[in-house]
From TrEMBL:
Keyword tags: Chloroplast, Plastid, Ribonucleoprotein, Ribosomal protein, RNA-binding, rRNA-binding
PROSITE patterns from the UniProt entry: RIBOSOMAL_L22
UniProt family annotation: Belongs to the universal ribosomal protein uL22 family.
Organism name: Gentiana cuneibarba
Name of the protein in question: Large ribosomal subunit protein uL22c
PANTHER family for the chain: CHLOROPLAST 50S RIBOSOMAL PROTEIN L22-RELATED, LARGE RIBOSOMAL SUBUNIT PROTEIN UL22M
Length: 164
């Protein structure tokens, strides 16, 4: 789904009934929220979670939709894409029965989740050099140093009366 609001193009991608726990997917989504498209792909390729692959597929499909839609697209560069919103919601869980000893069965709940990602196109170029310059400028600022207050408690303070 593509929406245009106030000269900003937003691309919505939904993944329904993905067979994994929403908590495991949230762990990955929190890492990519607010990042650029290129940086997101690098993060998802290098993270070693099972949730990365379906999220990678959703992000890749959102980017291809944004670039292929030339009628709505203002600039067709992948460097201008940013993940503006990313959500994970719990979905239905399926109940399965696991066979146990003596003909008994044990219920197992398999949880599923819905993932929604919103990518927006930014007019100016986003490059890694600009981000590293910002980080370097922040590192050059002096860190605040807290004065250490030395408070020592010796045994002479506790046993000042002379009695043990």
């Amino acid at each position: 789904m593509i929406k245009k609001k106030k000269s900003v193009l937003e691309i919505y991608v939904f993944g329904h009934y993905i067979p994994m726990s929403p908590d495991k997917a949230k762990r990955v989504i929190d890492q990519i929220r607010g990042r650029s498209y290129e940086e997101t792909l690098m993060i998802l390729e290098l993270m070693c979670y099972r949730a990365c692959y379906p999220i990678f597929k959703l992000v890749y499909s959102a980017a291809s939709n944004a670039i292929s839609n030339a009628s709505y697209n203002m600039s067709s560069k992948e460097t201008n894409l940013i993940i503006s919103k990313a959500e994970v919601n719990a979905s239905t869980s399926t109940n399965k029965l696991k066979p146990r000893a003596r003909g008994r069965s044990y219920p197992v709940k398999k949880s599923t989740c819905h993932i929604s990602i919103v990518m927006s196109i930014v007019m100016k170029d986003i490059s890694f050099d600009d981000e590293y310059r910002k980080v370097d400028s922040l590192k050059s600022v002096k860190k605040l140093r807290w004065k250490k207050k030395h408070t020592t408690l010796g045994y002479h303070n506790i046993y000042s009366s002379g009695r043990i």
